[in-house]
Amino acid sequence: MSLPPGFLDELRNRVTLSSVIGRKVTWDMRKSNQAKGDFWAPCPFHQEKSASFHVDDRKGFYYCFGCHAKGDALSFVKETENVGFMEAVEILARESGMTMPARDPRAAEKADRRSQLAEVMEEAVKWFRLQLHASGGAEARAYLERRGLPGPAQDRWEIGWVPDQRQGLFHALTAKGVAPDLLVDAGLCARPDEGGAPFDRFRGRVMFPIRDGRGRCISFGGRSLDPKARAKYLNGPETDLFDKGRSLFNIARAREAAGKGQTLLMAEGYMDVIALSEAGFGAAVAPLGTAVTEDQLRLIWRIHPEPIVMLDGDAAGQRAALRLIDLALPLMEAGQGLRFAVLPQGLDPDDLLRSAGAGAMQQVIDAAQPMVRLMWQRETEGRDFDSPERKAALDKSLRATLARIADPSIRAHYGEEIKDLRWQLFGRGGRKPARGASGFRPFQGGAPGGFGRGGRFVQAPAVPMPATRASLLASGAETAADFVREAVILAACIRHPALVAKFETALERLEFSTKGHDRLRNLLLYHHGRDDLEQALQAEAPVDADEVLRHPHVLATSAIRAGADPVAAETCVAEALARLQADRAHRVEIRDAEDDLKGVVDEGLTWRLSRAAADRQSAARGPQDTKGDAILASNGVELDREELERARRLHESIDFTRGGRPRNH
């Protein structure tokens, strides 16, 4: 539906951002200035102890300097309540006493239908609860008692029972005036193929209500007590209220518990979640009878940046974990991943809690492994690597897996961890490097320094002279060119604020080489949309802004000057970003290739070097030069003299007749 002009402005004027967010956070009053509408708190979107989440009541915006979450009251309600835009508007309007405008007839009809279905589901909850406490529910009550769920716990989870009758629920609710069509559309009843009155979809089952993030009952899960039943667990069908792939059991309670600092746990079924919650692990959820979907994974990441997946100790649990790894790899972002807790063989969380208690479960959670370890286990467990060919096959499989990680920073760190694990498996001459309890190589005496990539000892650098520390080359960038390109990008965005929106994702992901550049990037994203953007930056970070805007290369670039053509400025930023990415990727390839010379390599090594060099050349030519790309596509990679010579020397150092080992070994 469309809102009348001025409605959202009036809504934002009536709602105080700090009052909306204050329900979810605890303000740090040492940093906050309530009189000026300036508030700080730990971020509700990621786990942290410091107060890096800033709320500006006067501007009506929030921003986290840690995870870069930003927005206004509407976006905050959308993210924390897991609702759509119009639902967020309705929530804030109701709290502020504003009347929502009339909807168009079709939208109003659809909303009314959903409201009716939600009411029918609540009536079903009441009827199922009544049947559990009736004489016919004795078997179900005894089953729940055996599973460690006494009466108070049954009430907390609103567990019910449905008798084994064809039309028990149908007759009970239609007697209350509920239309048969509503029972069918809610997923509670089904129509027979041969026609006639609808029949109950659930019969002879313990019933678990499934509620959404707003607490509405949207479906049921039924557990059969008949050992001969075709399906032990049965979920309701997809309806206007219920989408299996976008829902999680116990999502509302888990989000509240996670907001109070608990780690989010993802178990397999209803009873696992209930057992975990009753034992004090309240931030527990479960998928609904299907493998975890991409939407469910994104949903749990909105609740907690690094949830722990509880894996049953059987083969099925291991297979589920491997499927989840493949799903998660392309979706991971910085600070957002998965850990895996493997339970003892043959036990699920409910079994472990009943047999060994909450302490044993906490030990399992504390021992949860990062996803990279399970990925490595999948590639190596049960395999023998006693030949160069088998080792090369492992390398090929690992490279293919790492290539699925979209985030370049995460991909690089995964590569480092895999190299370390590979070193432990193969070593040199069968030896494995010494490791400390933390998992990192300890310092082993001698001159100050440490062990770097590939196990090489690196001498600590000499303390720089004051003049050296003040130079451009000591700014923290690997090359001075990186520093210059970053300055060009930031200056263009300051002079042409519209570019911030166009390159927002690239700016968020870009790793800047200095704290000053990083600080400017954060302020650009925070103040995005202001007409006086440059003045705001000059006021909050005058030294950093002056350093960028007065840089000689920036002053010499006509596309960045005030009043310059915005299209030229956009092209300038795109070229600088492309060249930064290409140069950094090229340096990574060179370092990786040099490390690979210490182990097993193949002819693909020189191809990687030449490919990286070609990417550098393509970025240097800019997005408008398509002729060079055509040459690369038709004639192979065209290297400059320096790169060609380096690739040639590297290629000649490898003896392919000896399994790809360097000749000097």
Automatic annotation (TrEMBL):
SUPFAM superfamilies: DNA primase core, Zinc beta-ribbon. Its cofactor is Zn(2+). Binds 1 zinc ion per monomer. A zinc finger (CHC2-type) spans 43-67. Keywords: DNA replication, DNA-binding, DNA-directed RNA polymerase, Magnesium, Metal-binding, Nucleotidyltransferase, Primosome, Transcription, Transferase, Zinc, Zinc-finger. Residues 612-621 have a biased composition (Low complexity). Its EC number is 2.7.7.101. InterPro entries: DNA_primase_core_N_sf, DNA_primase_DnaB-bd, DNA_primase_DnaG, DNA_primase_Znf_CHC2, DnaG_bac, DNAG_N, DnaG_primase, TOPRIM_DnaG_bac. It catalyses: ssDNA + n NTP = ssDNA/pppN(pN)n-1 hybrid + (n-1) diphosphate. It holds the Pfam family Toprim_4. Residues 612-634 are annotated as: Disordered. Coiled coil: none annotated. PROSITE patterns: TOPRIM. Monomer. Interacts with DnaB. Contains an N-terminal zinc-binding domain, a central core domain that contains the primase activity, and a C-terminal DnaB-binding domain. Belongs to the DnaG primase family. This is DNA primase.
